[in-house]
Amino acid sequence: MNWPDKVYDFEALKPSSSSDQALVFDVQRFAIHDGGGIRTNVFLKGCPLNCLWCQNPESIGWRQDVTFVESFCIHCHKCLAVCPVNAILMDNDKERVVGIDRDKCIRCGACFKGCYAGAINIVGRWLSVDDVVAMVERDRDFYIGSGGGVTFTGGEPTGQSGFLLAALQAMKARGLHTALETCLYVPWEQLEPLLPYIDLLLTDIKHMDSAQHARLTGKPNELILDNFLRLQQQDIPVRVRIPFMPGLNDSRENLQSLAEFIAPCKNVQGVDILAYNRLGMSKCRQLGCEYALPNLAPPPQSKVEEAADMFRGVFADVTIGGT
What we know:
Helix content: 25-40%
Number of strands: 13
Largest sheet: 9 strands, mixed
Shape: globular
Distance between the termini: 22 Å
Oligomer: single chain
Strand content: 15-25%
CATH superfamily of the largest domain: Aldolase class I
CATH architecture of the largest domain: Alpha-Beta Barrel
Number of domains: 2
Strand order of the largest sheet: 7-1-2-8-9-10-11-12-13
Structural class: alpha/beta
CATH topology of the largest domain: TIM Barrel
Radius of gyration: 21 Å
């Protein structure tokens, strides 16, 4: 992705009500799994949940983060020379860079700007609505031909609701199909103004038991389930995504409870079973954080198929993917 030149603005997160700019950590073109057709996915940074298995841990923080990929480092020591707070970590022989001391790091961007090899990067770019529109418009012909559009995801995009509303309005004004992927852990008053500009809402339900949900994500599920039921009164197409985590939420009891919960909801178009993968593990290393599930293995395909079959008895459109 070619980011606009002006986006390297290292500062604290602006108020979520701001419609001027948003902190975006990725823009993916030619995506095909998040709303139908060929799409551009815009990933907004920051999330109120902290799921143990999160495959995008760089999305959680409400600020820019610094990543370090040791295998990319050419040991030129440029970062060491430019860091104003001595936050670059070296090996015992003082020859190889092995990481960044996040307690010292002030996120000034000096190491990133001086890293020739791309081993150090800043996660999060400040983009305006016009910046995002320009990126999305590049592939308009592909959206029209495939029935695609733009999907706002995260993190939790509703956390930057002012920008999100302005961006959705801009996309609709241009006749583009819009999708929003949200965990629904958001006040209804913050979500409701977005709904007239959303053609499809994607949401995941991680566990039906509130205490277990809190153990897995850091938050209970009452607000999420309440918002989900409120959506049924809005006549907005919804697609439910279920992260399938071995030993955490894959019990027949939980899946049956979830199927019974969403079955009466007439605006649910289908269900996606998203099998656990370990993508978040390598990203945590780059962020200098500890991965919460180092010993968890992806589920056998047979177990994923069994879960999908439970929902195929309720919905005709059930898919299997990865999370």
